[in-house]
Amino acid sequence: MDEHLAKITISEEQMAEIDDLYPSPTENAELVFKHLRTEHPELTNWELLCFAAMYIGLVGDEYPWLKMPAMAINRLLHILHYKYPEKTSGTVGYVDETLHKDRKIKRQRNSSSDSKAIRSDGKATKRPKKRRKKPRNRRESGNRVPDRRGQSGLSEGNLARQENARRTQQRIADSDRDEKTS
């Protein structure tokens, strides 16, 4: 389908005829954008961009040639979201700055991997690194510890195997003794 679309050439006259009958994709996009901006001024440019990219993917069944470009755009948006979260988190556009600041502070407080602590005035300070807790006994450190019966810290399966091997050796020794006496 992409090859077919690439081969199509449209003359200026054909474009003018079509534009007289139907609004262009740019006009349609501007119409939707203006509607969303007036009805939902709290939406940021990033949120609208994410919606547009996801919508392209949602209509992929109706327009199958848009499926691959939509996947590429969505992949790019996710990369940008995780690589530059401060730029894509809604700072651009008509956004209530206090709401955005509260969201950012909550995110920083909830993030466990973040090495910054949030002071009461909203500014970030470096959080001290957690010290590794020393093990209280040898069991916590991963070393073998004798269990209650005085055995060498082996698992139950290993203990059973050891016991079976001991019994087998005892039977062999008993049978050797019986042969010598007879």
Automatic annotation (TrEMBL):
Chain residue ranges for the region called Disordered: 103-182
Biased composition (Basic and acidic residues): 138-150, 173-182
Composition bias, Basic residues: 125-137
This protein's name: Uncharacterized protein
Organism in which the protein naturally occurs: marine sediment metagenome
